[in-house]
Amino acid sequence: MKKKTIDINTHERILTSAKKIFYLKGLDGARMQEIADEANINKAMLHYYFRNKEALFDAVFAEATGNILPQVSELLNAEMPLLEKISYFTDKYITILSENPLIPAFIIKEMNNNPERFFKIFNEKIRLKPAVFIKQIKSAVRNGIIKPVDPLQLFLNMISLCIFPFLARPMIMNVFGMNDDDFRKFLNKRKKEIPVFIINSIKI
Amino acid sequence: MKKKTIDINTHERILTSAKKIFYLKGLDGARMQEIADEANINKAMLHYYFRNKEALFDAVFAEATGNILPQVSELLNAEMPLLEKISYFTDKYITILSENPLIPAFIIKEMNNNPERFFKIFNEKIRLKPAVFIKQIKSAVRNGIIKPVDPLQLFLNMISLCIFPFLARPMIMNVFGMNDDDFRKFLNKRKKEIPVFIINSIKI
DNA sequence: GTCTATATTCCGATAGAC
DNA sequence: GTCTATCGGAATATAGAC
């Protein structure tokens, strides 16, 4: 088995390590040495596979957004009645986030740190389009299925309620004295309670 | 007018500039040079007034948390019936955040970057205590004023709905094509809609 | 492809004159 | 208190042997 056969694995290992470090510390806080250590390779290899730190970061960022946002779009555009969709979305969305618990804070951080770079990538490749879902809410209001609400506000309510726990996780665990398992249970409970909370509010 | 008379102003000017830079870029992303430029002074002065970068950051951090969190505690512990308090809290909280729109992202960023440092300061000095409010919710459930809900979940719903727009502001403005004025109007509308949304959900 | 050694850049911090 | 000049360390990046 020649060393050359390792390259794809190395490439993958670097990306995996880079994700871990960048997600936790951000572009500015991450150290190339730390990423190399985490991947059990030499620092020079990072530059061999990815030109420089920024290129490595872009790869990580592309994976973070390119992985999650299409899934969210798909949930939003699923064809089903609104009330059913709210439950469906909440449940699936929190599940997705639970599998990628560090990504929300990562996105928020990088978006606020450097909006230009963020939206350059975001608007080119990814593009989140809630237009269909917004229309569905409008239609439900018009047809008397739900109370008259501002569709944008309702949409943001859904998103806020799902994402916030992942952003504030350390604070929540600290203030309410939770350990990892407590927090996991808390999320599972929340998965069920959010749709009840929303639907109770808007149903007629 | 001697130069010596300027020192308090300089101290203040440094803090103001440091806040601006640290809020936007975080501890890691901020440059001492940038803070000095912003304050129109020399880099060496930063070290004269504040020992080093960390000390300057600590001062900024202390102001950020020490300014906002006590106000929030006060809102939470205000003496009034629950439903009224929900409206009161939402309105005042969003007003406070509007005056300090960068602080939420700053807190989330630093808390996730370095939880140890964060909670060392947080637990010593500030301490957020929602216990009284949680009890009030429990009591309202017991007395049949609101539907049976998990107090912790309801509390986090309130917080999530208020804070999230400030965290996701660039994204919201981008996706929905808002300018600064649009966003300001959006927040004012939200201030009124959040309590309606919550109370509709839990009232009997 | 992988490594060691080294170059280069950047940035926080200090020395010392005024 | 304020400035200029500079040091010293750290981190990114590259050269070059294997």
SSE pattern of chain A, N- to C-terminal? HHHHHHHHHHH
Structural class per helix/strand content of chain A? Answer: mainly alpha
Tell me the domain tally of chain A.
2
Q: What is the C-level CATH assignment of the largest domain in chain A? A: Mainly Alpha
CA distance, first residue to last residue of chain A: 68 Å
Rg result of chain A: 20 Å
What does this molecule look like?
By secondary structure, chain A is mainly α. Chain A has two domains: 1-50, Orthogonal Bundle (Arc Repressor Mutant, subunit A), CATH 1.10.10.60; 54-202, Tetracycline Repressor, domain 2 (Orthogonal Bundle). Chain A has eleven helices and no strands. In chain A, helix 1 (7-29) runs antiparallel to helix 2. Chain A is elongated. The termini of chain A are far apart. The model of chain A is unreliable at 1-5 (pLDDT under 50). At the A-B interface, helix 1, helix 6, helix 7, helix 9 and helix 10 of A face helix 1, helix 6, helix 7, helix 9 and helix 10 of B. The structure holds a DNA duplex (18 and 18 nucleotides).
